[in-house]
């Protein structure tokens, strides 16, 4: 049962079926020239089949073995917490709690997943929220058990940067975050396209998805940190084995990366916003060029790595992704649904499937919770939604 009738840019969202390639081409020709508000939307209402293409991605340390069979559906088990303000980043604590970042307030809050109780750890100094910028991604140190460090990606007055802070739960609420230690700085900032997702990979390195801050040319400039996936040590140095010596750049030609996840074979996948036509999920190759702004979606050119799946922008506008039970799970903002992308190696084994369409509004972040469980964060209070009582929420999902 849907929570309420959902509308985006005045158009009712309805379930759509896949159409043929010929109809998709005709639709694109008719709608050419329409511009996107990125997270707010892109192409007019329409339907296309998510495309499937081959791509290769084998980061160092990838393990052998068969890909586990993918389970086929997802259901909401319960509401974990509600009343969150512009939630964005999410990190799971070893004791079962969750840390959630408020983009606009610049605060980090601990959520007790059993009771839903919220405790504000503190405000991150230096956060300058504006547009799509603010306090964004969160990640725990690989050595969190001993160092209790929380990493955060945020927009400052001058750039986007990554910091780390000591979390001391013994201190009073509101004073539990230590002073931020800047790990990495100089990522271009803008009113839009700030990227913001960070995650530690299976190799212990810190990965960051960045945006081109509205300046398209930065994506193809390997000297710029905008429109990239970055790979660095926990101290912020370019990681050993990066494709470009002395650089943190791991892949380039991206528009706005807000989703990072690894599969059971330790292969990296990323979700990013398109402009007018295609949103993408990509299998990431070290040194790969993903085409923006020269290509959006599948290009067929040997110069660029094609996505493994793509959607019209009104169906997705993707932010977070997670891997569980043989599939990637992708949160859609304008699309207001959770996409399942079943994997077979670095290709999709079947067409992506939508779930929860319109049930909970805009969806920002999805995080693997272990086994067949996922955490899902809604995004109705980010200035582009239609918040109702209780928004925003963290939901617990079960993959079946």
From TrEMBL:
InterPro entries: 6-blade_b-propeller_TolB-like, Glc/Sorbosone_DH, Quinoprot_gluc/sorb_DH_b-prop. It comes from the Bacteria. Gene3D superfamilies: TolB, C-terminal domain (2.120.10.30). Residues 1-37 form the signal peptide. Keywords: Signal. Residues 54-72 have a biased composition (Low complexity). The keyword Signal applies. Residues 36-72 are annotated as: Disordered. Residues 84-384 form the Glucose/Sorbosone dehydrogenase domain. This is PQQ-dependent sugar dehydrogenase.
């Amino acid at each position: 049962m849907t929570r309420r009738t959902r509308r985006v840019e005045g158009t009712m969202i309805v379930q759509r079926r896949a159409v043929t390639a010929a109809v998709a081409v005709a639709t694109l020709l008719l709608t050419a020239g329409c511009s996107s508000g990125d997270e707010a939307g892109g192409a007019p209402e329409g339907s296309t089949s998510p495309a499937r293409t081959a791509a290769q991605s084998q980061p160092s340390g990838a393990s052998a073995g068969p890909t586990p069979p993918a389970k086929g559906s997802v259901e909401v088990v319960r509401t974990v917490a509600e009343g969150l303000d512009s939630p964005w980043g999410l990190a799971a604590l070893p004791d079962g709690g969750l840390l959630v970042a408020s983009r606009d307030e610049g605060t980090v809050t601990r959520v007790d997943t059993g009771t839903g109780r919220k405790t504000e750890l503190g405000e991150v100094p230096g956060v300058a929220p504006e547009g799509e910028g603010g306090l964004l991604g969160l990640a725990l140190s690989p050595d969190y058990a001993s160092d209790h460090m929380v990493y955060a990606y945020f927009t400052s007055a001058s750039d986007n940067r990554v910091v780390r802070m000591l979390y001391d739960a013994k201190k009073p609420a509101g004073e539990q975050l230590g002073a931020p230690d800047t790990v990495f700085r100089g990522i271009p900032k803008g009113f839009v396209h700030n990227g913001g997702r960070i995650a530690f990979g299976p190799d212990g390195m810190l990965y960051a998805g960045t945006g081109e801050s509205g300046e398209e040319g930065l994506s193809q400039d390997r000297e710029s940190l905008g429109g990239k996936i970055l790979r660095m040590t926990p101290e912020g140095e370019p990681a050993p084995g990066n494709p470009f010596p002395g650089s943190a750049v791991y892949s380039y030609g991206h528009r706005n990366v807000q989703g990072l996840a690894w599969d059971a074979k330790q292969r990296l996948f990323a979700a990013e916003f398109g402009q007018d036509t295609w949103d993408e999920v990509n299998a990431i190759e070290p040194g790969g060029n993903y085409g923006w702004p020269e290509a959006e979606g599948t290009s067929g050119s040997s110069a660029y790595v094609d996505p493994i799946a793509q959607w019209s922008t009104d169906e997705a506008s993707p932010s977070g992704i997670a891997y569980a039970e043989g599939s990637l799970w992708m949160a859609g903002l304008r699309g207001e649904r959770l996409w399942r992308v079943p994997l077979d190696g670095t290709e999709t084994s079947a067409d992506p499937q939508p779930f929860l369409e319109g049930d909970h509004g805009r969806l920002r972040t999805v995080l693997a919770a272990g086994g067949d469980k996922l955490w899902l964060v809604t995004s109705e209070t980010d200035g582009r939604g239609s918040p109702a009582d209780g928004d925003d929420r963290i939901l617990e999902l079960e993959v079946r």
